[in-house]
Amino acid sequence: MVNPRLENYARLVVRTGANVQPGQILLVEADVEHTELVRAIADEAYAAGALFVDVAYRDPWVRRAQIAHAPEDALEFTPPWMTDRVTRAAADGAALIGISSGSNQEIYEGLDLGRVGRARHADAEREWLKAVTNRDISWALIACPTERWAQEALGEPDLERLWDAVAHALRLDEPDPAASWNARLNELDERTAMLDERAFRSLRYRGPGTDLSVALIPEAKWMAGRDTTIHGQAHVANMPTEEVFTSPHRDSAEGTVRSSMPLALRGGVVEGLELTFSGGVCTDIRADKGADLVRADMDIDEGGRRIGEIALVDRSSRVGETGIVFKNTLFDENAAAHIAWGDGISWVMGDRSVEEAHEAGMNESDTHTDFMVGRDELEVDGIAADGTAVPILREGVWQLENG
Fold first, then answer.
1. 235 - beta bridge partners?
2. At residue 312, what are phi and psi to the nearest 5 degrees?
């Protein structure tokens, strides 16, 4: 018997998120703890006409063994079959559903954080980033409540309470979740139109520990949760999604920015993060906890220390309404305005190729990591061509209006 809650979740993710089509292959990436949800997704995907559901399970305890005992040069090893799987998925125009939970930081407790940050299937991640950047696949990232995640996010293993929060964020508590999502995505699309109409030359952030300016790429548009593959297949890449976003010019970031929430990163949690930028490059990394995780992630290549995305989220966010710090970036980034270091998002450049996007100033990297900066005290202004500062966010409230 399928749990009705899992069934509703799977239907939303398969039909609205990845939008699986008849004859399409669906790849699912999940932890071993997510088995029940994976089975519900498989059932719904085959009902939608999927040709095959290809599931790859992860086990964080196996990763811990690698970090604890593997030689340094093996931490980023990627078996060829793993890379080939991604390459073939992109070539076939497959769909992907990626499932996460909490940070799993307690599993990696006592290990060197630098090694934790470097333990990644680098070649496969690079292929996934390429597939996403080229819009080859329809994808949806989601999270699955578990008792361990509940313990981390709530301070107690209250699985029902966590499910209630996730259901609220995903609009599963609505009579028609898909229709509710469509209405919210329309609202977010209206915000992108407001921003595009004003054609700001830069954004300025001011708040506790934050004084940062970033220039926008003139050709880059603002976007929201709706995405479309190169094959014309619509999908919603992040569920939940409450943001509007774009990619700034890679050489433009100047100043200092302080995170407003903990950041779950590759098996650890970063707290009290502060970054300083000069000429677009992050020149100083400080954190109360987890700075080595950030350095390991940023130093993967030259572009890792530059900004690839800026995203605005206001107080109307369903995720923010829960009042929970989830220690899961998919959820936390949709509770507050955020910035990402690493790769830019090429599809904000319209029909331009990835190469043309890079020539216009979009950043290029093999990493893309979002960290939260939004809080009630944060002021975000758009700077017009004549230098006028136009309020966008004040006390967590969206300021722009149509017209």
1. 227
2. -115, 130
For position 351, what pLDDT does the model report? Answer: 85
Per DSSP bridges, beta strands 263-265 and 268-270 are: antiparallel
The number of angstroms, rounded, from the C-alpha of 184 to the middle of its chain's C-alpha atoms is 18
Cβ contact 341:282 at 8 Å: yes
Residue 402's pLDDT is 81
Whether residue 1 has pLDDT greater than 60: no
CA distance 57 to 368: 22
Q: Which residues of 93-110 are buried (b: 16+ CB within 10 A; e: fewer)?
A: bbbbbbbbbbbbbebbee
Helix residue ranges, H only, 177-271: 177-198
Angle at alpha carbon of residue 164, lines to 223 and 310, rounded to 5°? 20
Q: DSSP readout, 11-71?
A: HHIIIIIS---TT-EEEEEEEGGGHHHHHHHHHHHHHTT-SEEEEEEE-HHHHHHHHHHS-
* 384 CB burial (10 A radius; 0-12, 13-18, 19+): middle
Percent of the chain surpassing pLDDT 90: 96
Tokens of residue 45, six digits: 């995907």
Measured between alpha carbons, how far is 340 from 329 in angstroms, rounded to an integer? 11
pLDDT tens digits, one per residue of 111-164: 998 999 999 999 999 999 999 989 999 999 999 999 999 999 999 999 999 999
Decide: 10 and 47 in contact? Cβ < 8 Å: no
pLDDT value, residue 403: 66
Tell me the per-residue pLDDT of 172-224, one tens digit each, with 9 for 90 and over: 999 999 999 999 999 999 999 999 999 999 999 999 999 999 999 999 999 99
| DSSP symbol at 1 | -
- Taking only the tens place, the pLDDT of each residue in 236-281 is 999 999 999 999 999 999 999 999 999 999 999 999 999 999 999 9
Spatial distance between the Cα atoms of 65 and 349, rounded to a whole number of angstroms? 42
CA-closest candidate to residue 113, choices 98, 103, 99, 121? 103
Measuring CA to CA, how many Å separate 391 from each of 96, 236, 333, 366, 396? Answer: 38, 29, 21, 33, 11
